[in-house]
Design brief:
Strand content: 25-35%
Strand order of the largest sheet: 1-2-3-4
Order of helices and strands: EHHEEEHEHEE
Largest sheet: 4 strands, antiparallel
Number of helices: 4
Distance between the termini: 19 Å
Oligomer: single chain
Structural class: alpha+beta
Number of strands: 7
Length: about 160
């Protein structure tokens, strides 16, 4: 597998598939979350290193996963910003380190933008993020689901 990374704005033909994956994964936690709304949000991710943006992982033209950097990630959690959001790896590609690489690349983006503290929320993936150095910040209830807000001081990727 030859993974390359691109801004979603550079490969807009991938947006419908990515929107469908995101809605299938997270609609239980986000009121009114749907594919048209997700596509409209992706349309605002119109450049590279800025907030908001989405980075995708591809093998050739095959979409493998994504991560977003957002100002706000949920209407019910406005006390924290900005957010690592929508980390998604296609199920048949999980367990290969792609999620870790996407998290690290998002941290690097935040670091390069001068972000001092980056946040995320998760309902069940806390051990994954703790292993990567993220700390628990708060516990919140999202549509009856207990979620953990986590934070980290973003780091630059090591020089290759």
């Amino acid at each position: 597998m030859n993974v390359r990374y691109a801004w979603l704005s550079e490969v807009p033909e991938q947006a419908p598939q990515l929107a469908a994956w995101h809605v299938a994964e997270w609609s239980p936690l986000i009121p009114g979350f749907n594919v048209p709304g997700m596509l409209a949000e992706f349309a605002t991710h119109d450049g590279g290193l800025k907030i908001p943006t989405t980075l995708v992982a591809l093998d050739g033209e095959v979409l493998l996963g994504s991560v977003s950097l957002l100002e706000n990630d949920h209407d019910d959690i406005r006390a924290y910003s900005p957010w690592l959001a929508s980390l998604y790896v296609r199920p048949d590609q999980r367990g290969r380190g792609l999620g870790i690489e996407l998290v690290r690349r998002c941290e690097d983006m935040a670091h390069r933008l001068g972000v001092e503290r980056l946040y995320l929320y998760t309902a069940g993936q806390e051990p994954f993020y703790r292993k990567l150095g993220w700390d628990d910040v708060a516990t919140v209830s999202l549509r009856g689901t207990c979620a953990t807000v986590m934070g980290i001081a973003p780091r630059a990727l090591p020089e290759a």
